[in-house]
């Protein structure tokens, strides 16, 4: 059993905690919070032991009547791996604390690459984390681009990828983020940090990225153009991407027309919190002109890095290989959406009529 703690029980931390708790080869020892707000109730309802992320805030929890199993140092001494899910930039400040307790650490994509020994994506760079003391799971956008570009490069050879990322302004619970009525180039210069970050995972792929922020909270949208070395057949590209367990081909027949319907589809499928762990590639958007491939994909920023965190833990603290780890993570979480509408399995004529 790999004993795991989660430091920071926010948007990413609460999802990583649930995913770790679902693994047969992992034990979730506990989670931390910086303040005793509503998030502590979610941890309590799930039976997770709660620790104070910041030692000198322990009294705030006592004053709020919230019981603690200890503070961060106690959690670090009880685990094999700590997953840092603190706000962007705080992970870097936490790194020396993890080192002082001799505890292996997984960081998130809000930190710079040099916070850890290796950047991680299960599809493109599993072995880089093998036995490492610190690993950074790349950001939601970089995770999605790595999952997409890795199979395209292996099969066709990527000459150059150009991606425009329309990023959600904030997560649904972030009342202070924006814009609320605009679309903002962010940054206005090219490349955004995503292209160089993809090269932390796929160093040989040439990719330029441009990014904007839009007044939505549900998902990011990527407009992707990849010039490949061998002219691809659109049907073969569809088959290639359909074979990737962490890519969901959104079938035209499903009538899903945007992020809102996608999130509803996930919730109807019984996904916790309506999470979409997979890249969502719009099947009918896969188009080819000569050696230029075009497509749109949506990325659920709160969810796609979650299975990658689980695999990063295994890569660091076990000898399980990439294929086995991904299979275990997918199986335990239920990663791998396949619509029953895509192949005619649920053709309209087969739906039961009211009469
Ligand atoms: N949200 C996304 O879309 C997304 C996607 C991919 C990657 N990431 C990355 O994941 C990381 C976490 O982001 P998030 O969106 O989950 O942030 P978040 O929702 O703001 O959650 C951060 C959590 O960290 C806790 N915290 C505050 N100070 C801390 C400290 N000093 N030590 C430990 N924990 C502390 C907070 O506690 P309280 O709740 O008590 O304040 C909160 O539970 C960032 O690096 C981010 O860039 C985020």
From TrEMBL:
Primary location recorded for the protein, binned into one broad class: cytoplasm
GO CC terms in record: cytoplasm
Pathways involved: Carbohydrate degradation; glycolysis; pyruvate from D-glyceraldehyde 3-phosphate: step 1/5
Signal sequence range: none
Catalytic activity entry: D-glyceraldehyde 3-phosphate + phosphate + NAD(+) = (2R)-3-phospho-glyceroyl phosphate + NADH + H(+); D-glyceraldehyde 3-phosphate + phosphate + NADP(+) = (2R)-3-phospho-glyceroyl phosphate + NADPH + H(+)
Source organism, top-level taxon: Archaea
Entry annotation: catalytic residues: 140
Entry's localization field: Cytoplasm
GO process annotations (BP): glycolytic process; lysine biosynthetic process via diaminopimelate
GO MF term list: 4-hydroxy-tetrahydrodipicolinate reductase; glyceraldehyde-3-phosphate dehydrogenase (NAD+) (phosphorylating) activity; glyceraldehyde-3-phosphate dehydrogenase (NADP+) (phosphorylating) activity; NAD binding; NADP binding
Keyword annotations of the record: Cytoplasm, Glycolysis, NAD, NADP, Oxidoreductase
Residues the entry annotates as binding NAD(+): 11-12, 110, 168, 301
Gene3D superfamilies with a match to the protein in the record: Dihydrodipicolinate Reductase, domain 2, NAD(P)-binding Rossmann-like Domain
Binding site for D-glyceraldehyde 3-phosphate: 139-141, 194-195
Residues annotated as domain Glyceraldehyde 3-phosphate dehydrogenase NAD(P) binding: 2-140
EC number: 1.2.1.59
Subunit and interaction comment: Homotetramer.
Cited NCBIfam families: GAPDH-II_archae, PRK04207.1
Family recorded in the similarity comment: Belongs to the glyceraldehyde-3-phosphate dehydrogenase family.
UniProt protein name: Glyceraldehyde-3-phosphate dehydrogenase
Native source species: Halorubrum xinjiangense
Lineage: Archaea, Methanobacteriati, Methanobacteriota, Stenosarchaea group, Halobacteria
Gene for this chain: gap
